[in-house]
Design a protein that fits this description.
7-stranded mixed beta sheet, globular
């Protein structure tokens, strides 16, 4: 299937989930993350969920990261430029929901992409090779291109992998891992 078809199919599948299903699956994904070999790092980039799009509730993963005393970095999106700025989450960080429904830090200690060790990547769908489909705006492709080559990219998905995505481009950046409620996928070469 191509990306547009997958976007439509998985947006509908996610919309059909109940709030209880979202909570249960999100907790299973956070527990699955504990089994990945990523916990010897320092700086972890996490997205905060868009509730209206029924995204994975990353609050559970946020608690795991905080419990392991990791640096948690959140982004603020600029929809005019398609770029993101990244901020260290501290006790003083003020979060506001933007017009797209994304909770974002308003200001704080800025962190460069080159400082990130692990990036948790939101997605709608992914395939058995680690290719991913998001909302199609390219925010994460541009962001991941600026990260160091060995940054660990971990997708989070409510659903299992597709066999393949038909229209993968050379600009698309594949995942190293993906976590679903029932399975861990490894794509690292």
């Amino acid at each position: 299937m191509n990306k547009n078809t997958l976007r439509q199919n998985y947006s509908q599948a996610r919309a059909a989930l109940s709030l209880d299903e979202i909570e249960e699956r999100s907790l299973a994904i956070a527990n699955g993350a504990l089994r990945l070999p990523i916990w010897d790092k320092t700086n972890y980039h996490l997205f905060l969920s868009i509730e209206s799009k029924k995204e994975i509730d990353t609050e559970f993963l946020l608690q795991v990261l905080a419990g392991k005393d990791k640096n948690i970095i959140l982004s603020k999106s600029d929809f005019k430029t398609g770029e993101m700025q990244h901020y260290l989450l501290t006790d003083n960080t003020v979060l506001r929901v933007n017009s797209y429904g994304i909770p974002e830090p308003q200001e704080g200690i800025q962190i460069a992409e080159s400082q990130l060790d692990v990036v948790f990547v939101p997605l709608l769908a992914f395939d058995e090779q680690g290719n991913r489909v998001g909302y199609g705006k390219g925010f994460y492709d541009r962001f991941l291109q600026k990260c160091k080559p060995d940054v660990i990219k971990v997708g989070l998905s409510f659903f299992e992998a597709e066999r393949s995505i038909a229209d993968v481009s050379e600009l698309d950046i594949a995942l190293d891992y993906c976590i679903t409620p029932t399975k861990l996928y490894t794509f690292k070469k």
